[in-house]
Amino acid sequence: MEPHLSLPSDAAFWRRVPLPLLVVLAVIAFAAILVPVLLVATTPRIVQHKRPHVVISQRVVPKAELPPVEPVQLQEVAPEDAKSINDTIPFSTLPNPAARAFRVGGSAESQARAVDCLGAAVIYEAGDDAVGERAVAQVILNRMRHPAFPKTICGVVFQGQERSTGCQFTFTCDGTMVRRMPSPAAWQRARDIARLALNGSVYRPVGHATHYHTDWVVPYWSASLEKITEVHTHLFFRWAGWWGTPPAFNRGYAGSEPNIPKLSRLSSAHFGNPDTPVPGVATGTEGMIVDPATIPASAVPAPLPAESGGTAEGNNYMLTLPKGMSADAFAALA
Questions:
Q1: pLDDT (average), residues 79-89
Q2: Which residues are 287's β-sheet partners?
Q3: What would you report as the CA-atom Rg of the chain, rounded to the nearest whole angstrom?
Q4: What DSSP element (H or E) covers 195?
Q5: Which runs of E-coded beta strand occur in the chain?
Q6: Listed residue (144, 77, 163) closest to 106, CA to CA
Q7: Could you report the per-residue pLDDT of 32-55, keeping only the tens digit for each?
Q8: Angle CA 236–237–238, to nearest 5
Q9: In angstroms, rounded to a whole number, what is the distance separating the alpha carbons of residues 114 and 155?
Q10: pLDDT > 90: what percent of the chain?
């Protein structure tokens, strides 16, 4: 018969374990509990980034209906979200033919105004970048030929300028032209590009694009048009369906550019009232030149008579400025 084997009690067992080993076991047990707790407590939360809801129109305007030109409105999305949304809109795989060459007509004064309006658009919209400026110029020419837009260059560029927001080109209504003036060299380069576009130069990559926007915003119309190309950080679009094809661009040029007072700081071609020339002011391509000899006597400063507050020495003067005279001409009266 085998002898009965007895196991030591728990208390007896632990009394027989060396103290250093007990300490090691206790530390291991504590760490086994503490480490998972710390990992759970300190693990960074994964934030689920929800893309904002974007309202997108997919309607294609039929040939029998003129496509509307509405004030520009942007989706309320962050720039990084806007780029992601824009990336989901594919480029059109349909042909992208170049627009026909355009050659401006009309009087010399009207042509000068066309150059100014187009030059202002390209410098304020694209900055002093020749490629971007050519692309913007082509879009404006495309619009001028499309029945949905005005029939002059200045009319297209300054469409909606009377609004505080929502104009077709934001620089015309957001105060940019007051806050920021291009340098003389940049302004000259912009006008040179405008002259080329108005005399037959075609920027082929944008085809018949009538719309564009930077990659960091999402206009409400972006997905309802055909995205045809990208120039730097700008995306270019044409109307989907018949209104984006060459036959739709059949509008003739009006040939008489309006006076745009906002441009008078940049060019004398938009100086004062175009129907009432100011005496003594000669207009040219580089600015306003005032011949002092031609200034009317009524505009020349004269001493006030004594009965009107003058002095014997004639130190007090009264000056009446001709109506419509620009501040640029005041120096000639000094």
A1: 90
A2: 284
A3: 36
A4: helix 184-198
A5: 211-214, 225-231, 234-239, 281-284, 287-290, 302-303, 317-318
A6: 144
A7: 776 676 666 666 655 444 555 445
A8: 140
A9: 10
A10: 45
212, two tokens? 């564009």
Residue 14 has pLDDT above 80, yes or no: no
- Asked if 150 and 159 touch (Cβ cutoff 8 Å), the reply is yes
The per-residue pLDDT for 9 is 60
Please tell me what DSSP assigns to residue 318.
Answer: E
- Dihedral sign of CA atoms 185, 140, 258, 263 in order: negative
Total length of the chain: 334
Tokens matching residue 202: 């075609």
DSSP three-state, residue 103: strand
pLDDT reported for residue 326: 43
Residue type, 272: G
User: Residues with Cβ < 8 Å from 43, sequence gap 6 or more?
Assistant: none
Averaged over 258-286, what is the pLDDT? 62
Residues 84 and 216: their CA atoms lie apart, in Å, by 9
SS3 53: coil
CB 71 within 8 A of CB 165: yes
Q: Is the pTM of this model over 0.85?
A: no
Token output for 289: 């030149």
CB 182 within 8 A of CB 128: yes
